[in-house]
User: Fold this.
Amino acid sequence: MSTTTETDSPGTAPAPAGGGPALLGRTRGRWLLLAAGLVLALVLPWVIYPPVAMDIAAWALFAVALDLLLGYAGLLSFGHAAFWGGSAYVAGLTALHWGLPFPLAALAGAGFAMLLAWPIGVLSVRRSGIYFAMVTLAFAQMLYFIVNQWRGLTGGENGLQGVPVHFFGLEAVETDAFFFYYAALPLILLGMWFAWRVVHSPFGRVLVATRDNPARARALGYDVERYRILVFVISAGLAGLAGGVFAISHGFVSLQEVAWQTSGKVVLLTVLGGIGTLWGGIVGAIVIVILEDQLASSGFEGIGIITGSVFIAVVLLFRRGIWGTVSDALARRRGERPAAEAVSAADGEEGL
Amino acid sequence: MNEILQYTVQGLAAGSFYALAALGLAIIFGVLGVVNFAHGACYMLGAFAAAVLMDLVGLNFWLALIVVPVLMFFFGVLLERLLVSRLTALDPLYNFLLTFGLSLLLVDLVKREYGVSGQPYTRPEILGGQLTLGALRLPTYQVFVLVFSLLVCLGVWLLMTRTRIGMIVRASTEKSELTRALGIDVNRWVTPVFGFGIALAGLAGVLAAPFRAITADMGSSFIIILFAVVVIGGLGSIVGAVVAGFLVGLVEAFGQAYAPTLSQIVIFVLMAVVILIRPAGLFGREENA
Assistant:
């Protein structure tokens, strides 16, 4: 892992899930995609209600954070609400009591999430697969009970109300959701860029190795547990950043943010969008947040009926998710073989 | 002393629900390798079925103890045939996700139909009141739940150790490939075992019906505690599931009595300690880890 030239230069960025050297055309496609994504992020609050646009951005980063763990390290965390929600509370509290500007509050929340993730990660990586999912879920639930009981600090079931937006006295940002979106977007993009850097770094390559063949990675001298703990903490930090921004944008932190349903929702977004693609999480967030918004405003009760059915359909029929399915189809049309390595690994037909 | 005994009975009664449901979870995991996220929802469905059938056709509690598990068995068979079986060849996480989606669906379907408020359920008169044993006074219902679940666990235990079916199930739980290699058709037992596991969750639900608030969300926190139970007991272990179920019930009861704010947290601390000391769980074996 001493040769960093290949992975450090963006021009020759390898395929997301560790494919071979990129072809020139595919690299250009990737830049076009990136530009399209940026444009979409910039016009989003013009086309939909700005608070919903903010929700999409926050959930997208949350899903990207989970995908970093699930898609590239092969660890399914069912307890990521602990980091999203834990950070939401810390961001809310620091904004409320110390009057921190919201980017700092969100970063403080992300820092807290990483601190929290350390012990949870150390304990959880002792198991992998299904056990990892259950153990992370249980630890997240522990935080849920703590938050629920500590009424003096968190407001218990009433949540944390009246969280203010501070932004260096800029009134437009502090009062208007439209401008707030643009003030918060850099944080979200920063988080996504960081996830992308991690995936395309030597560290990310080792991560994929520990996912695909932990025994061999171990034999090559990599401390698999340490890599797993580290990516867990990074993922928690990014989830925390998203949760902090989300909390401030709502001006309110509810117990829902630390509930296991939230952990489940982010898994749904990621799986629906496509595991091991990073882009998938963004697509999943757009689809689900808009769907939920539409259902809620149409007065439909029982969103779980729809999301649950979507989940079942995706797991049964489109395990590669929207992004994976579409990019496969495109690759096939161009006459390329869909990157076999990336497929079997990111898709997880054999191993998630 | 008296007080401690009361909490013990209370804890063991609460633990009965966990033990029965965790037993179902462990058996399903053992044979199918599936962790059924919808187990909490099935527990809820069991309780709802008892309440709704009492309301509609006047089905009493004693009959519900038989009828509802049978219904849940067929529900489980249906689930396995229609959904779960399509994914058993893949990574077990897919079935975990599938059953997660299923539990969202079931909970919100029930919520849509019956609302969020609790269903009424009248417990049979004979189980009301208190049982007096010398100087001891214990709630009759708790004693009944405890004795009944112990009998069911014993029954399952006998089924597992004394019958050929049980032998096959145990063998495929512990060494699935070897069992197949010995010429036993494990697949034949997959569907009934899944149904049986679901029936146990349903039975736990019926037992809880006169005891707990019957709401669509009653399974939501239950399933998380259940996961802690099987992690503590060791996921593949049938004995572990039962012992850890009762243990968690006790921890909960004593926690509620002496440190009410911490009672729920203690369970997860217990789980963390077990993971630290014995990652495979109290009764699990390292190789299954």
